[in-house]
Amino acid sequence: MGSSNGFYSEEFDLDAKWLIDPKLLFVGPKIGEGAHAKVYEGKYKNQIVAIKIVHGGETPEEIAKREARFAREVAMLYRVQHKNLVKFIGACKEPVMVIVTELLLGGTLRKYLLNMRPRCLDMRLAVGFALDIARAMECLHSHGIIHRDLKPENLILTADHKTVKLADFGLAREESLTEMMTAETGTYRWMAPELYSTVTLRHGEKKHYNHKVDAYSFAIVLWELIHNKLPFEGMSNLQAAYAAAFKNVRPSAENLPEDLALIVTSCWKEDPNARPNFSQIIQMLLHYLSTISAPKPVIPDRIFTSENAVLPPESPGTSSLMAVRDVLGETPRTQIEDKPRSFFFCFNQCY
């Protein structure tokens, strides 16, 4: 599978070791949807999994771009393994582009925090989640990968709500590659300010950046973990990005403990080179954790569990994408049928 300028060749080949037989995939209810893909709960062999079906695109240019992104994502998922990255199980490109990963039952960090409001997480739990995220990012960066879309929607909890795993590599890139940073890269509210500049916006020039964009996003997520409030509250996503990029506005760090305030404010500094790397961030978080007292149990009002258990994967995994649970109940749940339908049948029904 070759690449030039970050885009894959027309053959669009996937390594055979990544491929799974789509006839062994059985699809249940839809559990998530994004701009470029839908995610379903399903089964693969004896395991409950998340099945991400990637939209193919309409125009030849769009199709080529999405195929390149899909091939890149699969390659990264196979390559990187860590306990705080969702496990990759396999992929197929026919009849559609599909990525299969472990299914985590705890829902997204976004929905978990919403269920806790207006209460805040216990500080040890919040810092523990932050450590999970930082360790996942340290692993990615050690492989030369920038995630570029670090936000609570892409962080998934295990069933016991004790561990966070990073998901969705749809926008991840190898740091050695450069490309135009556009508004669709990452999510405005969590994006680093260097992704914008008046020159870039005015003339559409290429914007070079490095892995420190993820440190900025981490700072915003950490602030949110501590306060359990939406960062830049009262602003739209676009207003928040504009304020951060052109006015150097940040959420208030005044009410944070001194050590945590130092972590947050150093990670969201305007100069990317002044931000710490994730190895340093982990050490700072561990130091702070050693200074605070033992936690009191904090349990959300509404704990949701699935009747489906995740069975151990038969083969080693890596990292992966979303496993969005319907914690808020906006999507009606249906039980996976005792005799699951074939992947092809479900695909025809869904599209």
TrEMBL record:
It catalyses: L-seryl-[protein] + ATP = O-phospho-L-seryl-[protein] + ADP + H(+); L-threonyl-[protein] + ATP = O-phospho-L-threonyl-[protein] + ADP + H(+). Gene3D superfamilies: Phosphorylase Kinase, domain 1, Transferase(Phosphotransferase) domain 1. It comes from the Eukaryota. ATP binds at residue 52. Keywords: ATP-binding, Kinase, Nucleotide-binding, Serine/threonine-protein kinase, Transferase. GO terms for molecular function: ATP binding; protein serine/threonine kinase activity. One of its GO terms (biological process) is signal transduction. One of its GO terms (cellular component) is cytoplasm. Residues 25-289 form the Protein kinase domain. This is Serine/threonine-protein kinase HT1-like. It comes from Populus euphratica. The gene is LOC105117919.
